[in-house]
## 1
Amino acid sequence: MSESAVKWPSGRGRFVTFEGGEGTGKSTQIKKLADRLKAARMRILVTREPGGSPGAEIMRHLVLSGMGKLLGPEAETLLFAAARDDHVRTVIQPALNQGTWVLCDRFADSTRAYQGSLGQVPAALINAMQRVTIGDLKPDLTIILDLPVEIGLQRAAARRGSGTPDRFEAEKLGFHQGLREAYRKIAADDPARCVLIDANSDPDTVAGRVWTALRDRLLPTPASVVSI
Ligand code: Z5A
C-alpha cells in the first residue's frame, strides 16, 4: 500500500517512539519516516529524549555530561523524569491534541532499559515516576531497532570520530549486551505496542521494515483504503 492509496486517520495525532541501543539507527530511521509522511502531507513533529523542550534540553546536557551518574542511579532517573515531564506537557501532548503525528527518538522504554534493567533502579520507583510524568499517555507504536552491539558501537564510534564518548557510550560491552536483551524483553512483553525490527541492513531496507510496521499497525485496513 503506497502513501497515495492511504486514507490517513484523522483526529488526534499518533505517537510513535523509536527505541534501541547505541548506533542502532534511530535518528536515521526517524528522518526517513518523517520525510515519507511529510511527502504524504501529514503534519509531523520529530522530537527526542532526553530533551525536546527548552527545559528538557537543559536536563539533557546534565545527564549526558555524566553529572547525573555522580548523583546515583535514583537521582539520575529523576533527572530523566523531570525532562520527560516538561517535554510531554509542553510539546508532545499539545501536538497530539492538534492532530500532529509525533515521532520521538527514545521515550519511557529508555528509562526501563537503561535505568531499570541496567541501572537496577526498582520498577516500583520507575512506575511511580511514569504515573506522574506521562499518566495515560502511551505510544501508539514503538519501533525497537535491534542490532548486534558490536555493530551499533562501531557505527556510533564512526559517527563520533575523534570526539569523546558520552556517559552511556562509555559503558562496557556487557552493559550494551544487557541493553539489547532488555529491549528484546520489552518488545516481547508488549507485542500490541512494540515491533522489534532487524536493523542490521542498509538504511533503506530498514526503512522499508519500519514503514511496513507503521502501515500494519496504524493505517486503516485495505478494505477501508481509498485513493487520494
Ligand atoms: N537515556 C536514558 O538513559 N534514559 C532515558 O530515559 C532516556 C535516555 C530518554 C541519549 O543519547 C542517551 O540517554 C542514551 C540513553 C540515555 N544513551 N546513549 N548514548 P543520544 O540521544 O545522544 O544518543 P542515542 O539516542 O543513544 O543515539 P545513538 O544510539 O547514538 O544513535 P542512533 O540514533 O541510534 O543512530 P544514528 O545516529 O541514526 O546512526 C548512527 C550512525 O550509524 C550514523 O553515522 C549513521 O549514518 C549510521 N547508520 C545508521 N543506520 C545505518 C545502517 N542501517 N547501516 C549503516 N550505518 C548506519
Note: Residues 3-224 form a domain with the Rossmann fold fold (CATH 3.40.50.300).
## 2
Amino acid sequence: MAQTMRAETNEIVSINPATGEEIGRVANTSADDVRSAVDRSRDAFLKWRDTSFATRKQLVMAAREVILAEMDDIAGLISRESGKPVAEALSMEIAPVLDLMQHFARNTERLLKPRMIGIGLYGLLGRSSKVIYHPFGVVGIIPAWNYPFSIPLGEAAMALMAGNTVVIKPSELTPFIGLKIGEIFQKAGFPENAVQVVTGDGTTGAALVEAPPDKIMFTGSVATGKRIAEAAAGNLTSCVLELGGKDPMIVFDDANLDLAAAAAVWGAFCNAGQSCSSVERLYVQRGAADKLTEKIIERTKRLKVGVGSDPEVSVAAMSSERQLKTVFEHVEAFKDAGAKVETGGEVIVPGFTEPTDQIETASGFFFAPTVITGATNQMLPMREETFGPTLPICVFDTEDEAITLANDSEFGLTASVWTRDRSRARRVAEKIEAGSVCINEVLYTHGISQTPWGGFKNSGRGRTHGLEGLMELVQPQHIHTNGLAILPDAWWMPYTPAATATFRRFATDFASGSIVKTASMLPQLVKRIIELLKK
Ligand code: NDP
C-alpha cells in the first residue's frame, strides 16, 4: 500500500497511513501555477510590508483563535493524515505552535526594533549608525511531513510578523494539513495572497524554489536540502535548511535512571520515532548499562501500538511505506552486525518476513517500538538516520569516550547529557557538536519558540525560532549619518604626501582603538583637512 498515489488527472491522493482510507485528492500544482502564486505573493507583499506590527499581531492572534475553535478537528486531521496519535497532534503540534504564535505576535516589534550601533572612535568624528530590519518579500516554505502543522505554520507566522508574505508547499504525504494552514490564515482575515498553499510533490517544491521566492525555509532530508541549496544558488536565494539528525543521548552512571529511561522511551518513540531530534543513539556508562536497559525494555513493552485516534495508543502508524522499509532494513542491519533486538523489531503485520513484498500487503504502517543492545558506531544504522521507533544502546566507559562517540556522526542537530553532576553536564554539553544540547532533558526544545533551532554539520544551515530565527526572515539595513557634514573626510581625494602620512597614522593610531593614540594624531588630521579645504 503506497501512501500517495498519482491519479490520472495528475492529482495527489492522500491516504491515512494507519488504515489505508483515502482522505482526499489535491492538485499536483504545475510550475506555471507556482510561479503565478509567487507573483501574487509579491504583489501582496507590497501592501503587507507596510502594515503595522499592531495589525500583524491582531491577525496572528486571530489565527490562534481559529485554531483554538477548531482544535479537535485539526488534531483529528493531523492524526488521520500523518498517522500520529491525537495526543501528540495536541502536545507536539498544536500547543507549541499556539505558544509560538502568541510569542512572536507579542514580541516581534520589540525584537526587530531599530537599534543604534556603537561604532567606536568614528563616533568622535560625529558619525552614528543604526540598523533597521526589512522583510525579504516572499518566503517559500517547504516542510517535511513529520510535523506537518506546527513547522510550516510556525514559520509562516514568524515570516508574516516580520512583514513577509508566504507560499507553502506541504509534503505530498500531508497536503490537507497544508491546506488547513491556508484556511486558518484566511479565516483569521489575512489579506488575499498573504498566505498561499500550493499542493504537490517534489516537482512542485522544485518549482517553488525556481520561481524564485526571496527566501526559502526548507525542512527535510540532507539529499533534498543539497538539491534545494544548489537550485537556490542559481538565483542567489538564501535558504534556511533544517535537515536530518542522529541525535545521541549520553547517560552517565550517576544519572536518575528512572527519569532517563522514561525520557529515552519518549525521545525515541514519540511520533513513531519520526522526529528530526529523536533519540537515535543511546550511550550509557557501563556501571548503569544493565539497570537502564532493563528499565527501558520494561517501559517499552508496556506501550500500546495502534491507530492514533485511540487515546490509549502511544506509538501509532509511521507516515509512509518508505519509512517503514527503512526502519525494517535498519533493524535487520543491526541484527546482521551482531546487535541484539531486546524487544520489538518487527512490522506489525501477521506473517511479515521480507522488507518489500510483505509491507505492500500491510493495512497500515506500524512498527513495534524496538530496543537494541550491543550497538556500536561501526554499524550502518548508527550512522544513517533511521527516523523510526528504534532505540539502539551502546556502552561507554569514560567521559571522553562518550563525547567522541556522540560526535562521531555527520549530523549535529540535538543531543542530551544525563548526570547529577552539573559541572560535568555543562562540560560535556559544550563539547558536543550539535545545535541544541539538553541536560537531563530530551527532544522537546523545538517547542520553545524563544530558543534558536538548527543544526551543526549536515543537520542544517541557519536557524528557525528565537531571535536568530527571526533574523533569518529579515534583511538588516545599516543607516549611517555624518552629523558633522561641514568638513571633507581626511581619506577623500586628491591624495598627497600629507594624505599618506595621515593614513599611516590611521593605521597605527586610530585603528588601535585607543583614544589616547587617536588624540595624538589630531594635528596631522587637522593638517590634512586644511590641505583638502584648500584644494
Ligand atoms: P524530503 O527531503 O524528502 O522532503 C522534504 C520536503 O521537500 C517535502 O515537502 C518534499 O515534497 C519536498 N521536496 C522533495 N524534493 C524536492 C525538490 N527537488 N525541491 C523542492 N522540494 C522538494 O524529507 P522528508 O519529507 O522525508 O522529511 C524527513 C527529513 O526531514 C528527515 O531527515 C528529518 O530529520 C528532517 N527534518 C528535520 C527537521 C529539523 O528541524 N532539522 C524537522 C523535521 C524533519 P514531497 O514530500 O511532496 O516529496
Note: The longest strand covers residues 127-135.
